[in-house]
Amino acid sequence: MPQTQERVKITMKTIDLRELGETDERYMEGFLRHFRDVYLYGSVFAYCKNDAFCITPSGYFTHFWMYNIRLGRCYNPHDFQQYFYWGYYNELLETGRTPTEFEVEQKILDFYKNRLDLLTRRPLEVTIFKIYEKERVLWIVKLPPDECFR
Question: What is the residue range of 69's domain?
């Protein structure tokens, strides 16, 4: 049986909202509504160089946060929490270290390439929309509905 990395194909699409000249928060919310179907089948991660723009639900400021978690049956929730919450996020909080955008992206890619529970024989196709806003970068990770959300 092939290794996980060989069975997951990730396509990254970049959208730079800064190029549109629109940085108003209401505009951003409206724009993201177009990704509603992605929200149903995907997870949203955020990176903020200025931590005040990534606020956790409990009110802590951080440079990295997971806003929406939708992974269906293609993942083990304990593995996800161990990797992102208890692992990476807590490490950043405890050390006070500011990650780079590249580092955050590599953590996300590593999880989806190497830690999904693959239930099908065919390769799993994952799409990541990387969205640049004025103060943060969002990664919307969309998993295939047929394979992960039946």
Answer: 4-142
Which ranges of the chain does DSSP label H, i.e. alpha helix? 4-7, 25-33, 36-41, 77-80, 90-95, 101-114, 145-148
Write the Ramachandran bin of 59: left for phi over 0, alpha for psi from -120 to 50, otherwise beta.
Answer: left
The count of domains in the chain is: 1
- Give the predicted TM-score (pTM) of the model: 0.82
Residue range 67-89, pLDDT digits in tens? 777 777 777 788 888 999 899 98
Query: How far is CA 90 from its chain centroid?
Result: 17
The verdict on residue 131 lying in a domain is: yes
**What single DSSP character describes residue 86?**
I
pLDDT digits (tens, 9 = 90+) for 21-62: 766 666 666 666 666 666 567 788 889 888 676 776 677 777
